[in-house]
Amino acid sequence: MSTAxxxxxxxxxxxxxxxVVILAGVTAALHVGKLPPALPLLRETLGVTxxxxxxxxxxxxxxxxxxxxxxxxxxxxxxxxxxxxAGLLILAAASALGGLATAPGPxxxxxxxxxxxxxxxxxxxxxxxxxLVPGEHLSRRLGLWGAYMPTGSALALLLGPWVLAGLPWPxxxxxxxxxxxAMAVWVARAVPPDPxxxxxxxxxxxxxxxxxxxxxxxxxxxxxxxxxxxxxxxxARGPWLVALAFAAYSSQWLAVIGFLPTLYAQAGLAGPxxxxxxxxxxxxxxxxxxxxxxxxxxxxxxxxxxxxxxATMAVGALLAFALPADAGAWAAPLRYAAVLLFSAVGGLxxxxxxxxxxxxxxxxxxxxxxxxxxxxxxxxGQFAGPPLVAAVASAVGGWQWTWGVxxxxxxxxxxxxxxxxxxxxxxxx
Length: 429
Hints:
Elements: H1 17-33, H2 35-45, H3 50-78, H4 80-98, H5 104-122, H6 125-132, H7 138-145, H8 148-166, H9 169-190, H10 202-210, H11 226-235, H12 237-258, H13 260-266, H14 272-297, H15 302-321, H16 331-346, H17 348-360, H18 367-396, H19 402-428
Helix pairs in contact: 1-4, 1-5, 1-6, 1-8, 1-9, 2-3, 2-8, 3-4, 3-5, 3-18, 4-5, 4-9, 6-7, 7-14, 7-17, 8-14, 12-16, 12-17, 12-18, 12-19, 14-16, 14-17, 15-16, 15-17, 15-19
């Protein structure tokens, strides 16, 4: 008589798998924020022109603007964990090779490759978190995920100047390459493998060949083809509303945060102080992202959070930019407090929208495709917002009408929040 050998119980990891996924997103976002602190050294050592510097900053967004939907579909088909690992490895390889660049051309090309790696690493994450987390905790985890970009960017903005003060710029690239490769190893060890799903028609054939009769065990659902996922995603109203709402948010957030160093330089602030102030303004966005997850878990509706976020961003931009230049000594602290309010409460928006992208996706196997479409429209907003704000500032000779551009985006966002509320009511019926 055989005796059953009990299986060893797995030890509980100090960080759950979904936490590792969120840290992987933060690690990927470091590559977005690593460039601004290094631009002065790149211009000095590689002869990077101002125009090339602008392209180095925008190429990551260009990849998201053009490839978001395609990469999202690839992630749904490739497998969520495999896509995350592939993205991290691409980021690590591109950063390692970037440290070897001796001219702007290769660095520009590798920056575009980093953009593709960033998409592969981040687009499957909301769907992967949904697979790993019980439903009652999903909104809080997605709120944490929504903070991956401001967290990574703020860390890079804070750490970059200190690293670059004592080391050449390639060391910054190589250090992040090693960190990203280590993160890939952690993901491979901590995140469960993707479930094996048969292709359409494969399960009956396999059962017949084995002579098995399994009336009570239906085959796992096959992953729909890319054309079906594309048709269902772009044919549904929900993904469009979420994507456009993200564009209305991202266009104004990046325009304000991105031009803060320029504003500080014009005010006579530069160096570590300007970097720290910008990093703090970026990091304030984390508060709203995390708060959105907790408020959704407590029963607040996503459209309500969107309305609060857009309205506060409009008021914050008005206070930050519409004050006259001779308003007095109290004006500068008030402007910075308004920027912090703009970023912190505005963080409610991405936290709520990531939750809505999962909820309004037209099917379980279209979540990454939907997130890819949202990312594509978000990148379009980030690509268009700063030039529009700069064009208005150039036309009027100052930044005093920036609030008009960002306020228009907030009005659009409020309209989209109302439309999303209607879409949610229809989905319940």
